[in-house]
Amino acid sequence: MLQISWSGLLWTVINLLVFYLLLKKFLWQPVTDKIESRQKEIRQNLAIAEEQKMQTAKVKADYDARLAQAEEESQGLLRQAENRGRREYQAILASAQAAAEALAGETRRQLEADRTAMLAEVRKEVAGLAMLAASQVAGRQLGGSDDRALLEEFLAKEHPAEGLPAGQYPPKPLPSEAGGSL
Asked: Is residue 132 included in any domain, yes or no?
């Protein structure tokens, strides 16, 4: 049978206790300290990472706000440029219309003046022809100032020139007055 030696058993237990105390002091304590320091470092790194994550989110929000503001400003500038372009277009169009109307008015005035001048010229020609015809019918030479005034008065009553008093333009001289004969 097996015999137990109490003295060997006691020395084994004492050796185990000494070994346990030595391990606890020199092995477990440094390992535990190392594990605790590592856990502390991991907690700090997690806290730093969380803080950086929050800062990154804040920077991203700031960036998004600035981007939105820049987009809004660019849209505002585009609207302003578009409005300015429309106003300039309207101003150019109004200027061109005013110039066209002024040119049309000037052309109408010039045409009216030319028409009036032509009517006066035709009137002089008719007066000259009427005096020539009257002198041939009467068989005598007309051309005195009394005859001419009478003829001007007749023409003014029958065909008044628009807005011109009779005799405003001096009539053309009759052939007899110019020294010519019929």
From this structure: yes
| pTM for this predicted structure | 0.39
Contacts of residue 181, Cβ cutoff 8 Å, sequence gap at least 6: 175
Q: How far apart are CA 182 and CA 180, in angstroms?
A: 7
The two tokens of residue 142 are 């007309």
Q: Note down the domain range covering 149.
A: 110-158
Q: What number of other Cβ atoms are within 10 A of residue 109's Cβ? A: 10
Q: How many domains does the chain have?
A: 1
By the 10 Å C-beta count (0-12 exposed, 13-18 middle, 19+ buried), 131 is classed as: buried
Reduced to 3 states (helix: H, G, I; strand: E, B; else coil), residue 82 is helix
Question: Which residues, 6 or more positions from 136, have their beta carbon under 8 angstroms from its beta carbon?
Answer: 182
Half-sphere exposure of 54 (CA within 13 A, CB side): 5
Interval 92-121: pLDDT, tens:
999 999 999 999 999 999 999 999 999 989
Q: What mean pLDDT is predicted for residues 140-154?
A: 64
Please report whether residue 136 resides in a domain: yes
Q: What is the pLDDT of residue 146?
A: 64
Alpha carbon of 75 to those of 64, 66, 68, 79: distances in Å?
16, 14, 10, 6
Q: What is the pLDDT of residues 22-53, one digit of tens each?
A: 888 888 888 889 999 999 999 999 999 999 99
